[in-house]
Backbone:
């Protein structure tokens, strides 16, 4: 496991704005560090976009069941090798109602133990992951997704993954997260 060493100094706990204190405390509790919150806290506009608009409004809101977004996020953080994300995402997925058996299947990439819609969402995550630079939604995969999700749902899942992948790249490039030993990024 690699510890983060960002060039941008994180704000101290006492300097974190009040609206980010709960998220900071939650990250400390779940992952043992809150570097992302402490660095994003430098920019009110950025932290409000990421935590309020993306997570509160889009990720936790929207038309797609939060459990699918949680699965998508867990598969991405597992493939990317972000230890900080894996710890935080697992805790959030449990709160959203994902079972231990489902979480274990996601972590081990044993998708056969999942329902068809679950498997399709996991496969979509694999298609969009940073570790798959040539990933492309195939006609067959789209048609299979379409049997369980509307086009609006598929777009919402795709944009969710796109933002998460972009953030993952930022987190790794700015050295804000702990990396698993398996991390390829």
Residues:
């Amino acid at each position: 496991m690699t510890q983060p060493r960002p060039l941008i100094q994180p704000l101290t706990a006492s300097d974190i704005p009040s609206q980010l204190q709960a998220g900071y405390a939650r990250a400390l509790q779940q992952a043992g560090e809150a570097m992302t919150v402490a660095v994003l806290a430098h920019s009110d506009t950025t932290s409000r976009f990421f935590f309020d608009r993306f997570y509160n409004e889009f990720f936790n809101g929207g038309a797609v069941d939060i459990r699918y977004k949680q699965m998508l996020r867990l598969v991405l953080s597992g493939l990317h090798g972000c230890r900080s994300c894996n710890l935080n995402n697992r805790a959030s997925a449990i709160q959203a109602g994902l079972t231990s058996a489902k979480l274990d299947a996601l972590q081990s990439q044993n998708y056969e133990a999942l329902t068809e819609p679950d498997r399709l969402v996991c496969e979509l995550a694999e298609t969009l992951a940073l570790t798959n630079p040539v990933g492309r939604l195939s006609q067959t995969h789209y048609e299979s997704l379409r049997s369980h999700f509307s086009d609006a749902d598929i777009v919402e899942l795709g944009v969710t993954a796109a933002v998460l992948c972009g953030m993952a790249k930022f987190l790794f490039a700015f050295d804000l997260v702990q990396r698993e030993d398996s991390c390829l990024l």
Observations:
- The mean pLDDT is 92.
